[in-house]
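INFO  loader      accepted 1 record
INFO  loader      residues=324
INFO  predictor   begin
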Amino acid sequence: MKNLKIRKYYKGDEKGFLALDRKLEEHKYNRRSISNFLWKYKSKNFFGKSVNYFSEYNNKIIAHFGAIPLGWYLNSKFTLGSCSIAMMVAPEWQSKGLIKFVGDKVFDDLKKNKVDFVYGFPNEKAYLLHKNIWNYKDAFDQNLYLINRKKIIEENNKEFVITPTDKFEKSYDLFWSKNRKDYKNILDRRSSFLNWRYLKRPDDQYKPFFVYQKKKLLGYFILKKYYDGKTLTIHVIDLFFKDTSQSNFNKLFKNIFSYIKKNQKTFDNISLWINGSRKINNSLLNLGFRIISSRKMIYKNLLSKKNLNLNKMYFTMGDTLEIY
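INFO  predictor   done
INFO  writer      dumping tokens
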């Protein structure tokens, strides 16, 4: 078709991207924005340049697919992965095979940049497309844990000290490099990435906290407020802790959620994703969290033909850059 093009980003495409998104968004409570687009795709991510391709017809954007490079440790060895996000096709162009050509361009670009695999959390319709046309594989079902504010047990264990922070300093990297080995499959949470991911995002505000036990850093957690109509949920969007005993994890998380209840303004629920840590899962269930839904995490090999076996991947909400 003469006036149909598939191409990389041009300056100003974010406006057409947003117009397409508004046609397709499922609800108004978790919206994309131009500032989010520019931060996500065009700002300085430690792990490399993001890739996004558009299709346009008569100078109007009708499709988009993107991916963001991220460092991962798989079986404790560093590799480049990528989070695939924002697959969108205008309603009148759906079911015509267009998105395959756009996605193939993205994958070719990722391969040139030595990205080993790509992963994502598509909705139900997009899930089938990813599986059928690009041969994505299932990794795991990501559970959503939730607890109502009223059910949070209040406790003040002086053994733990929780301190807000506004930056991950280089000194944190020593803690990270030492304790990441407790988790064989995990996103590279070095300070330069965490600062970009959580403290330089322009359209939302995250609140990071360090947790100390007997004056030694035990880890961190990061909060974000999420409004769904009149319901206010506190997302624990990311967390990382030194591996410890089940009983110590139980005490730790009891203290964290008590701290949130005491120090955050009125909210209705706390929710989070966590995969790849049975001890943390157990702690949440012991404290009264419920699993209220799950979503499939899928992936595609780009360079290696080996099965990556990602079912035990340590994963939180912040490890996808979709819109969280």
